[in-house]
Amino acid sequence: MLVTLLYVLFIVVGLRFFEPHVVGVTLFAIAAPWTVYELVKNRFKNVLVPLAATTVGFLVWYMDSVMVFKVLPVLITSLFLVKFLEAVIFKRPFLAKMVQKTPKVVWSEEKLSFIDSAHMYWLVVTTINMVLQIGVLFAPMKIWALYTTVGWYMLFGGALALQIIYGKVRGVK
After folding, report:
1. To 10 degrees, the CA torsion angle through 104, 109, 115, 118?
2. Each residue of 42-70: pLDDT tens digit?
3. Angle at 20 between CA 18 and CA 25, to 5 degrees
4. Residues 166-173: contacts with CB within 8 Å, 24+ apart?
5. Alpha-carbon distance 162 to 74, whole Å?
């Protein structure tokens, strides 16, 4: 979450004062060592975001295009979309495993089952997010920045609130 906010802030402020290729070189110079660090320390476990930022920085530097900056959130969302598609199509739930890692929270089997049954719901929410993100790709930078920093958090927060309310109405304990 913090990385997304910092990324958008970096892009918006950077483009206000510098040409796209300068911001691209700077992003590349920051993200490339981060990628190498993650590769050395964690192998491939946490390398996706820094590698994507390194790639975007290089492409913006090379192509001198602001559009490349705007594509990164779409790429990250597409990875989540693929993960939810895989969970729905191949019946490989993963959400319950993720929430079980929450420290000091004991999850009932009924709640874990309810969470694992929600992959189709989250696939739809992620698809809506993807459509909106593709839509703001072609909007002015301010609209893109607003949706990328606040809008998608509101979408997912609202979707989570609806899922919690639905669980309460169904009597999930």
Report:
1. 180
2. 776 777 778 888 888 888 888 888 888 88
3. 90
4. 167/111, 167/114, 170/114, 172/110, 172/111, 172/114, 173/108, 173/110, 173/111
5. 24
Q: Does residue 65 contact residue 140 with C-beta atoms inside 8 Å?
A: no
Instruction: Give CA–CA dist 144/69, Å, rounded.
Output: 10
CA distance 31 to 51: 7
Q: Give pairs for 93-98: CB < 8 Å, separation 24+.
A: 93/119, 95/119, 95/122
Which two three-digit tokens encode residue 46?
């946490």
Give percent helix, percent strand, percent coil of the chain, each to the nearest 5. Answer: 80, 0, 20
Query: Global pTM?
Result: 0.76
CB 53 within 8 A of CB 72: yes
Closest listed residue to residue 56, CA positions, set 97, 88, 23? 23
Return the closest-CA partner of residue 170 out of 114, 95, 96. Answer: 114
Structural domain boundaries in the chain:
1-64, 66-173
pLDDT at 1 over 70: no
Token pair 């910092």 is at which residue? 6
pLDDT digits (tens, 9 = 90+) for 2-54: 666 777 788 888 888 888 889 889 989 988 998 888 888 877 677 777 888 88
